[in-house]
Amino acid sequence: MNETQTRLHKNFLKKISSKGTATTDTLREALSEVAPYFHISGVEVEIAGIGDMADRREILYQDPDAKKQGDPLQFAFPTKHQNEFVVHIQPADRPFSRDERDELEIYATECFFYNEIIFTNEQAEKSAMTQYLSGLPNAGAYVNQAIRLVMAGVPSDYSAFYFDIRGFSRINRKYGQMQGDGIIRRYGQKLTEFIKYNECVGHLGGDKFVAMIRQERKDAFIAFLSDVVIEIDKDGSPEKLHISATIGEWDIERDEIDPSDIIGRPSLGLSYAKSELGTTVVSVTDAALEKLNQKKTVLGTYRDALENDEFIVYYQPKVDSRGNILVGAEGLVRWMHDGEMVSPGVFIPPLEQNGDILLLDYYVLQRACADIRGWVKAGLEPVVISVNFSRKDLADRHLAENIFNIIEESGIDKSLIEIEVTETVDEEEHGTLTEFINSLCDLGIRTAIDDFGAGYSSLSTLREFRANTLKIDRSFINTDDFSWKDEVILTDIIHMAGELGMDVITEGVEREDQLALVNNAGCHVIQGFFYDRPLPKEEFEKRLMDKQY
Ligand code: C2E
Ligand code: MG
Ligand code: MG
Questions:
Q1: Which residue is closest in CA terms to ligand 1's atom 10?
Q2: Residue nearest to atom 17 of ligand 1 (CA)
Q3: pLDDT digits (tens, 9 = 90+) for 149-190
Q4: How far is the CA of 390 from the centre of ligand 1 (A)?
Q5: CB of 453 shorter than 6 A to ligand 1
Q6: Ligand 2 is a single-atom ion; what residues have CB below 5 A from it?
Q7: Whose CA is nearest to atom 2 of ligand 1?
Q8: pTM over 0.70, yes/no
Q9: How far apart are CA 201 and CA 160, in angstroms?
Q10: Does residue 52 surpass a pLDDT of 50?
Q11: How far is the CA of 428 from the centre of ligand 2 (A)?
């Protein structure tokens, strides 16, 4: 190697190693300084691909004005990633000398090594952005894409999805891990085929996927996800696999969004779909999320709240409309949480779901007994106070006995307490409920059937339950299309209950005309805003002093 060649070669090596990241452009630049010295008119590489890598030819250097002399020199290298990397070097105006060929082989080898570095870098970059199995964008890349999409248009044009394949572990077991991976890959491809240029999809790993879809295509996407058909090979014969997804979906309703919401919000929908309802699609709105959060707060702080006496019992008067006299009251629980009063509609359903309601119901009964005791002590003449027990409480085999003990321990007359329960459609529950009411009856404790006429109601209830009171639900009198037929039914129910020795009370009477209607039907004891709302204990005490309305 002569001096010039050595200098050229050093320069070439310096050039290709000077840039921080290897690119084909660097190689081109470095070659363009070497090529004229060797009388080269062009350098081309040919990469024979395997698998999903296509064959490609790439020009690394070309002098458009130069002539071509004879066949190009060819140097082939086996590569780690592709089959072969072949460098073609085309001589310009004269063939290469032997020395030059040796020298060019070194350059070709260096080009090859350099290309390997470029390729490895590209792969690393790609794998940092994609999920290795499906080749779809991974979480980070998806969020970037989604944010860009959404911000380029109007955010509220989009719905964000988070979904997974139903029964995927079963599919994996049935077809094996290898086929399972293939199924995920093809599922990913199907998703890619569905989405449009202004939508995007990502793969978070496993069977979990995310997508940002235009709202007008939301329903179509849900329908698509309910049945994705994938052809698989089952012991040599093709088989069609129908895949459905469990979906969490969030309609973006605002102009600014937090990147974490793009996956976070629909994922809440998905977990809700899976854990609570067993349904396929749950759309989360901001209002629904608020509710979910509330629920979490309830379950998280409930026991402390019980210990800290955050639960308070309000009393709603029951009035006999014949003389407008206070005849009883219902104890209704309220939660004073962080200075705000939370209504039972918010905290009772979650507590019922996890069975924690029992503690609260015992607590309310204890409070009511203590209040009655206080009134008696203060010389007030008490009225019957009813207390609600959830049907979920029936899981406690000793429910009736425990109620009896709480009343006994408080030292009040047990005839001053009435226990309210609602009916049930569930046959097994119906049996337990009957037993419970019978037990209380045997123990001398009054019971009432709450919300009669709301949803499920059956006349056999009247026959089977030994309850003392029938509480007619406000939905009965609250319908806009109350007809003469409803009136006949109401009148008959009230009459029948009376004949069977039950007391009848109607809840939710708000207006004079409703009162007249109920009175006409034969019911005179009323609980409703017409007379009073649920009152704090101190307010209710004033009603106790003078029972006249
Ligand atoms: P419920 O036992 O049927 O209680 C009657 C509900 O109707 C009360 O709602 C009461 O405020 C409301 N109400 C009464 N009169 C009127 C009226 O004229 N118009 C309207 N619009 N509403 C009226 P609240 O206090 O929000 O309680 C709701 C439900 O929560 C109760 O329905 C009961 O099922 C449950 N609940 C309340 N306290 C307890 C408790 O300590 N334990 C259990 N397990 N459930 C309770
Ligand atoms: Mg009630
Ligand atoms: Mg009721």
A1: 534
A2: 508
A3: 988 888 889 999 999 999 999 999 988 888 899 999 999 999
A4: 12
A5: no
A6: 388, 420, 450
A7: 388
A8: no
A9: 10
A10: no
A11: 22
Q: Is the shortest distance between the CB of 507 and ligand 1 below 6 Å?
A: yes
How far lies 343's CA from each of 298, 346, 534, in Å?
12, 6, 11
Nearest CA to 451 among 434, 473, 481, 436? Answer: 473
Q: Which amino acid is at 242?
A: H
What is the 3-state secondary structure of 2-14?
A: CHHHHHHHHHHHH
Query: 10 Å Cβ neighbour count for 119?
Result: 18
Beta strands in 391-491 (DSSP E): 417-422, 446-452, 469-472
Q: What is the mean pLDDT of the chain?
A: 89
Average pLDDT over residues 315-319: 98
Q: Which of 340-344, 500-504, 531-535 has the lowest mean pLDDT?
A: 340-344
399 pLDDT higher than 70: yes
Tokens of 522: 């034969």
Residue 393 structure tokens: 């409480």
Structure tokens belonging to residue 454: 């709301």
- Residue having the nearest C-alpha atom to atom 11 of ligand 1: 534
Instruction: Calculate how far, in angstroms, residue 108's C-alpha sits from the geometric centre of ligand 1.
Output: 86
Find, among 286, 299, 379, the residue nearest to 346 by Cα: 299
Nearest CA to ligand 1 atom 27: 344
Atom 4, ligand 1: residue with shortest CA distance = 332
**Can you name the residues that pair with 183 across neighbouring β-strands?**
none
55 CA distance to ligand 3 middle (Å): 75
> Which protein residues have a CB closer than 5 Å to ligand 3 (ion)?
450-451, 507
pLDDT in tens, 77-127: 887 665 788 999 999 989 999 989 999 999 999 888 888 888 788 778 777
At how many degrees (to 10) do helices 484-499 and 512-520 cross? 60
Ligand 1 mean position, distance from CA 481 (Å): 24
Q: Which residue has the tokens 């955050």?
A: 310
Asked whether 343 lines ligand 1 (CB < 6 A), one says yes
Taking CA atoms, 20 is separated from 23, 26, 60, in Å, by 9, 10, 20
